[in-house]
Amino acid sequence: MTETLQAVKSEVPVTTAESVGRQSEVFTARVSDVEGQIQAQQKITADLAKSMQGLAGQMSSLRKQISSVSELNKDVEALVTLQRERYYELLQAQANATKAQSDSAESQAEQVIIRYPNPDAPLPLPEQAN
Question: Is the entire prediction scored with pTM above 0.70?
Fold first, then answer.
């Protein structure tokens, strides 16, 4: 029994050490794989952060452009309003001018005195015999 006990005492630590060594190697390999995955994720995260910064810059630029377009729309609306007012004023002026002409023509028609024969008219030429 002492021999068996001696054999167990010498074999158990060696077997245990071998088993722990194999498990340690497997664990170390898994940790290395996880570290590799973490590094890959860090790279992806860094690339994503750069992309997000680029998108933030584009969004800022887009907001400025939209603001510019909004200001331009306001300016165009103001110009359209001014043009409409000018057109309306022109139509009113034309209507007033037409009315003034018709009033003037009516007053002139009332003042015309017809005389026959017209003293200012040239005298007719005598007929020539053939």
Answer: no
